[in-house]
Amino acid sequence: MNLKDGTTVSFDLKDPVDHERWKQMAASNSFQNEMTGVGIIFNSHWYTLPLPKRFRQISFQAELVENSKKDAPPDRRWVGERVKVYVDDVLVSLLVYYGNRPRMSRIDVVKVGKRRYNPELKG
């Protein structure tokens, strides 16, 4: 992810230590306010979700997407990564699938209504 001061911070969500580090940092309002975009690097491609303009409330999230098949082998437990940004009453999400053929990503824009509570944020 990119921060306002020009630095880039990266996390490997498959690594339990990095995943926990991401969750702790993302739970901070001050860290959320410093983010200008978030991205996923997969198969030498960089997929980015920049900070939308002219919105007041902004919250970024990132997660692994689990395989819906219960009998999936351990090496296929995760089917992709998703980054999301909640802005005012809109959710924009970018899902990058791990498969190679064809390389796929998906963008969703959903009007979710005004969020009263964000379980990811502390304080």
In short:
With 123 residues, the chain is mainly beta. 14% of the residues lie in helices and 41% in strands. The protein has one domain (2-111).
- What count of helical segments does DSSP give? 2
Determine the N-to-C terminus distance.
Answer: 22 Å
State the strand order across the main sheet: 4-5-6-7
**Contiguous uncertain segments of 5+ residues:** none
Count of separate structural domains: 1
Strand residues, percent: 35-45%
The count of DSSP E runs of length 2 or more, i.e. the number of strands, is: 7
C-alpha Rg (nearest Å): 15 Å
Shape: globular
Structural class: mainly beta
Q: What is the string of SSEs from the N terminus onward?
A: EHHEEEEEE
User: pLDDT average, as an integer?
Assistant: 90
Q: What report would you give on this structure?
A:
With 123 residues, the chain is mainly beta. The chain has one domain (2-111). It contains two helices and seven strands. The protein has helices at residues 16-26, 29-34, and strands spanning 2-3, 35-42, 45-50, 58-66, 78-87, 90-97, 105-111. It has a four-stranded antiparallel β-sheet, with no helix packed on it. Strands 1-2-3 form a three-stranded antiparallel β-sheet. The chain starts with a strand and ends in a 12-residue tail after the last strand. The mean pLDDT is 90.
